[in-house]
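Hi everyone, sorry if this is the wrong subforum. Our group has a chain we'd like a structural model of before ordering constructs, and none of us has done structure prediction before. Sequence below.
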Amino acid sequence: MTELHQTFLFKMVAEIYVQIDDIIKENREEVIRAMRHLDLIGRDYPTKLSLSEVMTLLIYYHHSGYKCFKSYYNDCVLYDLRRDFPDVVSYSHFVNLIPRALVGLMFALAHQMKQSKSTGIYYGDSYPIPACHPKRVHQHKVMRGFADWGKTSVGWFYGLKCHVVINHLGELMSCTISSGSVADNDAGLLFRLTKELLGYFFGDKGYMLNEDKRNFLERDGELKFVTKVRKNMKKQNLELEPKLWLKKRGVVESVIDIHKRHLEVAHTRHRSASHAFVNIFAGLVAYNFLQRKPSTKICIERYLLRQAEKPLAIAA
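Answer:
Right subforum, don't worry. Here is the predicted structure as tokens:
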């Protein structure tokens, strides 16, 4: 490892640890209560590693460039990072500690999403997280009870779905995990994803809503759902700016590509369901540490100013 790369590694690990440790200290009581409820505290796996250190090692894995966690731990953690983590344990011991990080990672992700900017322009999409190859579903046991059959534009899969909503700056606003059979335009799912958003929500044809769902989700005009339309449907009565914003929906697909290809959020090599969910949430948290995220240039100030002047023009 070169000296420049080693310096960058230590700097990023320190940044992750400081932020994660602050979140855990701030929500310590809630985290402990949730861990006790899930029976994650009190297991016979004694260690000097703190929860923040375990989470840091799991999050940094998604930035390390390794595709195999065992190689990452044995080659990088036990040697390059031993100076920063003097109480690091063996690989087999650390594997037993991984489920403890699930609650903390969920709190960290929720905290990061609250820090994202509310810009009024949001893009939503989902992507599959396969549990196994479709031909091996009959013998698959790891994600049984969580995974289900689903269909995308590519074809059928068996597993989970990750639903994400971002702003036009590429920051995660909300995120949820569901079984593969849950549709993108499910009213309950969309309500959880968008209940705190105001402005415009842009999606593909999978987010088309009937009149009842639209009235329920748009909350008297607080949020406007804009989607692509099919050829046999009426065109939406939109102003020029929302039409242009809809054409920039590809930014969310760029974010998903980073999740799947670079952060290894979706793969089928898990040996337990708890490890699978820890990997997913660690990858989502790791995305928020990227210095440069996919974004699109949108000037919304002029549009908002024109909207504010409309009532005055009508009154005149």
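For your construct planning: The beta strands are 121-130, 148-151, 156-167, 172-179, 199-203, 223-227. The first strand starts at residue 121 and ends at 130.
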